[in-house]
Amino acid sequence: MSFHFKVFMRILLILGLSLTAVWLFVQQYTYTAFISILVVIGCLLELYNYQRKYYSIIDRLVLAMIYNDFSLKSNKKQANETFHNLQTLYQKLQNEQEQNEVKELVYLNILNNLETGIIIFERDKETWNIFLINDYFAKLFDIPKVKSWNNLARLLPNLTQYLEQLEFKESKNSLDMRIEGEEKQTFILQTSITMSQNQEFYIVLLDSIQKVLDKKEKDTWENLMKVISHEIMNSLTPIHSLAHNTLEVLEEEESLTADDMDDLKLSIQTIANRTNHLRQFIDNYRKLTMLPSPQKAWVNSAEILSNSLAILKPICQQYNITLHTTIETQVSLYWDAKQMEQVFINVLTNAIYAVKNLEEKKITVHLFERNNRLWIDIIDNGKGIPEEIKPKIFIPFYTTREDGAGIGLPLSKNIVEMHNGYLTFNRKEELTYFSINFPIV
Predict the structure, then answer these.
(1) CB within 8 A of 192, min separation 6: which ones?
(2) Least packed by Cβ within 10 Å: which of 45, 211, 224, 441?
(3) E strand or H helix at 277, and its extent?
């Protein structure tokens, strides 16, 4: 029987007893009428308790769902239809809550294991509270996982001041920070905004450029050893085979025929060619590994770039390449002028190679200042670097050009890093960007 039917029957019983009590009182059965009134009062109390118990169970389930309290573990089948529906709803929400907790644990574990510093802010009216700091961020800056903006500002003033200057807008840039009195480190900082259930979140990602470079350096050395092994074996294998065959001919033949002499000459010539190739390969390797220390002096960065452009201008004219130059600063830096000219020539030569066979050939060079750093962007409208080649372009001796030695970009990267700068590349809006940047001291 349903709750409403039981309540209806109780009300009918109370009405019947009340009418009986009135009739008894009219018939002057006072004592019996008094007992009937007591029974009516008892029935009313029982009805009240019955309804209170019924609705208290409903209130408990509803409040538990409102406050996400899913600690109740009752699987007992309910005879009452309302209780049964509420229990079904509660169990459904309970399962969803458990699944969400599992997902949250997985996501949190992923965030904490990423080798990228992540801090997420949550807007609270006009202020920002810290929603999450992942383990890597806390370890990177050696700070506790604070919850308030003021505490973070006390621990990392460079970061909070920069975010305030950004006005909490989306950006991707570099940031120099000093940590616990150490030398300044450069970080790649990327910020984004997201909305969820009318709540605004501000996500900040931080990567130490040095750590990124260390990982890339390790990968580069592994790939370099593969290239070196490949080049050496390609030369040694035919040399060994030809030398062995030549020795056999000399030992077996008492008198050599003209054909034997031709074979010997061909073998010796091939050995000479392969040894020349191997010597050239080793010379290029020495250029990379024995790069002389920069002879630095204060030089005008715009002049160094202009000198490099002047050297390559005839080649651009030969291939009808449109060269557009924008120089926004004349800042002086502590450079080795010859080495930096070589860097610009190498990168520009790659850009020329990328566009020389196109119908519309454009190269743009942009020199400018941003965030206390000097930037030189060399941009071409070539087809870009294929995805499978991108991880290898800074590996020594790796080249896709028939006339290339594969040392231009690796050598340039080494020189730039010896000048405390960075050489990177990117592809956007159908253009290839090679960016060189240096701190302005």
Answers:
(1) 170, 202, 203
(2) 441
(3) helix 258-289
pLDDT 10s digit of each residue in the chain, 441 long?
A: 566 677 778 888 888 888 887 888 788 777 887 888 888 888 888 888 877 877 777 777 777 777 666 666 666 666 566 767 777 777 777 777 778 778 878 888 888 888 788 999 998 888 888 888 998 888 888 888 888 888 888 888 888 888 888 888 888 877 777 655 555 677 788 888 888 778 889 999 887 766 655 555 556 566 656 656 655 666 566 666 666 666 666 666 556 666 666 766 776 776 666 666 566 656 655 555 555 678 889 999 999 999 989 888 888 888 899 999 999 999 999 999 988 998 898 899 889 988 988 889 899 999 999 888 999 999 999 888 777 777 667 765 555 555 455 567 878 888 898 898 999 888 888 899 999 999 987
Q: Which amino acid is at 366?
A: H
Residue type for 380, please? D
CA atoms within 13 A on the CB side of 313: 9
Nearest to 153 by CA among 203, 119, 116, 188: 119
- Quick one: 416 exposed, middle or buried, by C-beta within 10 A (0-12, 13-18, 19+)? buried
The β-bridge relationship of strands 362-370 and 322-327 is parallel
Residue 217 CB neighbour total at 10 angstroms: 12
Single-letter amino acid, residue 3: F
User: How would DSSP label each residue in 138-179?
Assistant: HHHHT-----BHHHHHHH-HHHHHHHHHHTS--EEEEEEE--
- What stretches of 203-257 show up as alpha helix (H) in DSSP? 209-252
In sequence order, the β-bridge partners of residue 332 are: 300
Structure tokens at 32: 């019996």
